[in-house]
Write a structure and sequence with these properties.
- With 422 residues, the protein is of the alpha+beta class.
- It has one domain.
- 18% of the residues lie in helices and 18% in strands.
- Strands 1, 2, 3, 4, 5, 6, 7, 8, 9 and 10 form a 10-stranded antiparallel β-sheet that branches.
- Helix 1 packs antiparallel against helix 3 (189-203).
- Its EC number is 1.11.1.-.
- InterPro entries: Dimeric_a/b-barrel, Dyp_perox_C, Dyp_perox_N, Dyp_peroxidase, EfeB/EfeN, TAT_signal.
- Its cofactor is heme b.
- Involved in the recovery of exogenous heme iron. Extracts iron from heme while preserving the protoporphyrin ring intact.
Length: 422
């Protein structure tokens, strides 16, 4: 979890002129400074909240909202967190190469554009026939293996080098990595599932599913007033996230127009981790013990040194017992940007629950997704620090992992990835 208590509710600050309405700000973009759950941050679902003067939107308005399209970046990065999400990775079929990949991305891009406008999907499913776009976003990325499969090794970014191993890793390779990756998010479960089925059907014989995961977050308007959400550990989660209003936000999150390779201009790198929360062990702790693990009060997310959720922790403050109030191994201390050379990432996670295991423990936790211009200076820098002594590590387990190059938004008439594949 890095200490990402989503800024109240932490949605990136986007002005009306940037195309996102106040109604669409009824959510939080789960961004994480390097201080958030690198449960990749144990951060769980960062919920929804409105801007300070907004009241929760009526449910009848949820279906009418459309995500902004056609910008410098793909949708699904800067938007508020979605209530429902699907992650899916594909491998190109045997014999499929660059030509087949280009044709597939053309199909996928056209379908995504249509669905994000709220148009009924072609085909026989009609799952979302009665719904509007519901803020649907679809985001596409390329894995390390994609470039060798398509003969484009010289275009593979150095930033896409495999992540190093971490001590909390117990990775299932069958549910990790992949040639192609898609992130789907929406505020309606049927709209999200409809997009998943449409894109899977579009893959045809060109690619086959490698793995697929489902997630959720708090629904817009679920709370009486705007507030930061809680993760599945019950912790307020989402403060200290980088915001677009910060002068160095773009530099830390997006590849510059002068970046290398050129086809990644305006893009970002997504680290995707499935992180199991060992909830039975966690819930055996007293509230006081849980707070010492995190370094924040469970009731309101404020640091143990006092104040409110957004108060800066006093890391050197000593209690009456002569010990620092925020323990040396507290998650909030170790994951802070100023404790990690300023490393930061924009976090947009989903929580997940995949049933009860044979031993009676819940298969639940975080589908951690973070965005950064350079994974080595973002996720890897923070996770290495957490790996060396984060108290939270005893209560989480990283079970799958992926790193994907997500190109910038396509220009008018282009498909996603065209600058690479053509």
């Amino acid at each position: 979890m890095q200490d990402t208590n989503q800024l109240a509710e932490g949605a990136p600050e986007v002005s009306e002129s940037e195309g996102i309405s106040r109604r669409r700000l009824l959510g939080t973009a789960g961004a994480v400074g390097a201080g958030g759950l690198v449960l990749g941050a144990a951060g769980g679902a960062a919920g929804y909240a409105a801007t300070a003067s907004d009241a929760p939107a009526a449910l009848s308005t949820l279906g009418s909202t459309e995500a902004v399209r056609g910008g410098e970046h793909q949708p699904g990065i800067l938007e508020p967190l979605h209530a429902r999400g699907h992650l899916i990775a594909f491998d190109l079929a045997p014999g499929a190469g660059r030509k087949e990949a280009a044709a597939l991305l053309r199909r996928w891009s056209a379908t995504a554009e249509r669905l994000m406008r709220g148009e009924v999907s072609d085909g026989a499913t009609a799952i979302a026939l009665d719904a509007g776009p519901s803020s649907l976003t679809v985001t596409f990325g390329f894995g390390h293996s994609f470039f060798s499969r398509t003969g484009l090794e010289k275009q593979r970014p150095g930033a896409l080098d495999p992540l190093p191993p971490f001590s909390s890793d117990q990775l299932d390779r069958k549910r990790s990595e992949g040639d192609l990756w898609i992130q789907i998010g929406a505020d309606d479960a049927l709209v999200a599932f409809n997009a998943l089925r449409a894109l899977q059907n579009d893959a045809g014989s060109a690619a086959r599913v490698r793995w697929q995961m489902n997630g959720f977050n708090r629904s817009p308007g679920a709370t009486a007033h705007p507030m930061t959400a809680r993760n599945l550990m019950g912790q307020v989660d989402g403060t200290n996230n980088p915001k677009p209003s910060e002068s160095d936000f773009d530099r830390r999150i997006f590849v510059p127009s002068s970046g290398d390779p050129a086809w990644m201009a305006g893009g970002s790198y997504a680290v995707v981790r499935r992180i199991r929360m060992l909830l039975d062990d966690w819930e055996k702790l007293s509230v006081d013990a849980q707070e010492k693990v995190i370094g924040r009060r469970k009731a309101d997310g404020a640091p143990l040194t006092g104040g409110t959720e957004t108060t800066e922790p006093e890391l050197d403050k000593v209690g009456a017992d002569g010990k620092v109030v925020i323990p040396a191994d507290a998650h909030a201390r170790i994951s802070r940007p100023d404790q990690n050379g300023g490393a930061a990432m924009l976090r947009r996670p989903f929580s997940y629950h995949d049933g009860i295991a044979a031993d009676g423990t819940p298969d639940a936790g975080l589908l951690f997704i973070c965005w950064q211009a350079d994974p080595l200076r973002g996720f890897t820098a923070v996770q290495r620090k957490l790996d060396r002594g984060d108290a939270l590590s005893s209560f989480i387990r990283h079970e799958s992992s992926g790193l994907f190059a997500v190109p910038g938004g396509p220009g008018k008439g282009e498909y996603v990835g065209q600058r690479l594949l053509d």
